[in-house]
Design goal:
Layout lengths: L2 H9 L8 E3 L10 E3 L2 H9 L6 E3 L24 H6 L4 E5 L5 H9 L4 E4 L7 H12 L2 H21 L6 E9 L2 E3 L5 H7 L3 E3 L11 H7 L3 E4 L12 E4 L12 H13 L2
């Protein structure tokens, strides 16, 4: 399931901001880490901190070993008591206006909470760097960001479509929400030569009339349950949470998407 990560992204402020601490930053290498987003969970494991992650959200599903960890709820119903009970010496989350009060409260209770941006493609490096510094492995963070940049460059050079396609990207269906300008999904698909028809951003609600007016050639459906076709657009349904998370797996997801788009 990937609806919750998308909801968190939709809640994020439009303006780009760097990592932020609620409460005091960690003073020593953390031994018990709580992750409050699927993307931060993936990053923590990519940084080699997986054995120190003690609890996650219900939407965290990668890597497979996280499914055995205690669940603390989701972005809209996070259990403050459960987070405190996990006795973390570091809490990591992505920015979300709906959770800001919760982050602040956890900080007031003495828990170091690191909140990182996940709005645009350029947020990947500062987010990973901040998490790597917090867990005490700056060099591993550099390795992960270098690998991500190299993989993304390779996708851009090899996977770009010969003919740009006017594309509408839907990420939620109740209400209908699109990935607009400024979102990391917009930046990601642009690397393939897909032209996002939604000018608003980063995650605006859209109506059927507006979608028809934009006359997309491709409707990329990343919603949980699926949406109806729109006009003449080719409908491509993909239940691929990798495309909804700013993680090291995103470049490979884009390469796979490029191959799928090319199929008749």
């Amino acid at each position: 399931m990937h609806a919750a990560p998308t909801r968190a992204a939709m809640d994020a402020p439009r303006a780009a901001h760097g990592p932020r601490w609620y409460g005091l930053p960690v003073a020593t290498k953390p031994r018990r880490i709580v992750s409050l987003a699927p993307s931060t969970t993936e990053v923590l494991f990519a940084l080699g901190a997986g054995p120190r992650v003690v609890a996650v959200t219900r939407y965290c599903d990668y890597p497979p070993e996280v499914t055995a960890l205690p669940r603390l709820g989701g972005v809209m119903d996070l259990s403050l008591e459960a987070v405190v009970a996990a006795k973390p010496d570091l809490v990591v989350a992505i920015r979300s206006t709906s959770s800001e009060a919760t982050f602040a409260r956890l900080g007031e209770l003495g828990l170091p909470v690191l909140v990182v941006p996940s709005d645009t493609l350029t947020d990947f490096s500062p987010a990973v760097s901040a998490i790597a510094e917090a867990i005490g492995d700056i060099e591993r963070g550099r390795e992960v960001t270098r690998a991500f940049d190299a993989a993304l460059t390779a996708v851009r050079s090899r996977a770009a479509l010969e003919k740009p396609l006017r594309t509408l990207i839907l990420v939620a269906e109740r209400p209908l929400v699109a990935a607009g300008k400024g979102s990391f999904i917009d930046g990601a698909v642009a690397s393939l030569g897909l032209i996002n028809v939604i000018a608003q951003g980063p995650f605006p609600e859209v109506g059927r009339e507006e979608m028809l007016k934009q006359d997309p050639e491709l409707l990329l459906d990343l919603t949980e349950t699926g949406v109806s076709p729109v006009g003449r657009a080719r409908l491509l349904r993909l239940k691929d949470p990798r495309l909804l998370r700013l993680t090291p797996r995103l470049p490979q997801a884009l390469a796979d998407l490029a191959r799928t788009v090319r199929l008749p």
